[in-house]
């Protein structure tokens, strides 16, 4: 089992950050802070920005807003260049495909000071490219896809509601709360997988309060769509009453892949890969559901 650190205010999984990052971004730091291990709380509903074993720094005590807690258009995605989410979308609308394209269009250059400027103390390349892709997809859908006027109730179903369906529900809440009301369940109950919790937290999504549910617990909800995310659930998926549509997308089973891993890092790499694959699918909801032939 992974050694998982928790925020002592909200109880969710936290992400390790370098002391130099905390020191640079905090207005004030607690006494003897340099000798402690520091973590970032990624729960967007928690007021804690950073915490150690016995201290916490509030988001109000930082010099910058946090991209993983604040989804505002003026929040930086690249902190060392101060390029914002809105600037990236506008650059993409003008034809940007790469980070270099965005730099040229915005006239802002990356300084490489990620360790001290980025709130997570690491290179922002991945989240930068992810934001570019999100902007491309958003612009594409705005131009070509019909608008859906109601929130769709979507059930993500897998065998034990332990890992893949939990990730899908978490991503849908995080990325698509404006148009999707997501749920997850299993044809069995296996308990919430803590590696799934850990890798989702790494991506800024907190699913630590989720619980593993049996399909019968949601029997009174009238779903618009049931999405099976593993082959076993697809084969054993029951018939739902009413006008419920079905969609199947198969993702690899991380616990099964990790079973013979030679190290914890190798094991968790499978969870990260499947996490990112599920995100890519969720990003295209709900339009991809209507592409069924």
Describe this structure in words.
By secondary structure, the protein is α/β, with parallel strands linked by helices. The protein folds into three domains: 14-61, no CATH class; 76-144, Orthogonal Bundle (Arc Repressor Mutant, subunit A); 152-291, Rossmann fold (3-Layer(aba) Sandwich), CATH 3.40.50.2300. Helix content is 34%, strand content 14%. The chain is built from ten helices and ten strands. The protein has helices at residues 19-25, 85-93, 99-106, 114-117, 125-144, 164-175, 194-202, 231-236, 254-258, 264-283; strands at 14-17, 38-41, 48-51, 56-58, 76-78, 83-84, 152-158, 180-186, 225-228, 245-248. The protein has a four-stranded antiparallel β-sheet with strand order 1-2-3-4. The chain has a four-stranded parallel β-sheet with strand order 8-7-9-10. It has a two-stranded antiparallel sheet with strand order 5-6. Strand 2 (38-41) and strand 3 form a beta hairpin. Helix 6 (164-175) packs across helix 10. It is globular, with a radius of gyration of 20 Å.
